[in-house]
Amino acid sequence: MLNFSPYFNEFLIVAFAMFVALLSPGPDFAMVLKQSVTQGRKASIYSSIGIGLGISVHVVYTILGIGLIISKSIVLFSIVKFLGAFYLIYIGYKSLKSSGFELQADQTNTVKQVSNKKSFMMGFLCNALNPKATLFFLSLFTVIISIDTPIYIQSIYGVFCIFATMAWFTFLSLVLSQDKVRRFFNNFGKWFDRTVGVVLISLGITIAFSK
C-alpha cells in the first residue's frame, strides 16, 4: 500500500515552489491574457489545459535525467532556448500585425476565432518550449526533491504540478474573460494586441539572449 507520509514535507516544499512559479508573470500568463480577451473563455481554457500538459514534457525528461543532459549541453540547451524564443517572437509578431478586436453588443468577438485544437497547441507549445521552465523543473527535481525519493512519488509531484498549472490558468481564464474585463481592454482596441505583441517579443528576445 502506498505510504506517502514520509514525503509529505517534501511535497509541501514542491507545492510552495510551484505556487511561487505560477504567480510569476511570464509567457504563459501573457498567452492566457491574450486568449481570454481576444478569443474568449473557451479558447483561453483550452490554452490553459495546453499549458498544463506542456509541463508534462518537462516532468518526463527531468525524471528520466534528460533534463540534466540538456542543461549540461550548450548545443541542446541552445536549441531548446532558440525554439522557445522563436515561438514567442512569432506569436508576438502575429499580435502586432493583428487589426485588433472589438466586442459587439452580443459580446461576441469580431476577430477570427481559432479552433479549440489550435488554442490548445498554442498553450502547449508556449510552455513546452519555455527554457525557463526547463531550468525550473531541473532545479525542482535535483535540488528540492531528494535523489532517494522513488520515481512513482516524483511522478505524483509531476502530476500535481500539471493539474495545479491547469487549475491556476483556468481560474485566470474565468476572471480575465469576464465581460467587464474584456470591455475594459476593448477600449484599447488594437493597442491591446500590439502591447501583448511587444511583451511576447520582448520575452522571446530576453530568452534568446539569456545565458
What does this structure look like?
With 211 residues, this protein is mostly helical. It has one domain (28-208). 77% of the residues lie in helices and 0% in strands. It contains 10 helices and no strands. Helix 4 crosses helix 5 (74-97). It is globular and about 55 Å long. The termini are far apart. The relative contact order is 0.23.
DSSP helix count?
10
Q: Report the oligomer.
A: single chain
SSE string, helix = H, strand = E? HHHHHHHHHH
Distance, first to last CA: 45 Å
Poorly predicted sequence stretches spanning 5 or more consecutive residues = 104-110
Strand content of the residues, in percent? under 5%
Largest sheet: none
Short description:
The chain is mainly α. The protein has helices at about 10-25, 25-40, 40-65, 65-70, 75-95, 115-130, 130-145, 150-175, 180-185, 190-210.
Show the helix and strand layout.
Elements: H1 8-23, H2 27-39, H3 41-63, H4 66-72, H5 74-97, H6 116-128, H7 131-144, H8 151-176, H9 179-186, H10 190-208
Helix pairs in contact: 1-8, 2-3, 2-6, 2-8, 2-10, 3-6, 3-7, 3-8, 4-5, 5-10
Which key phrases capture this entry?
mainly alpha; globular
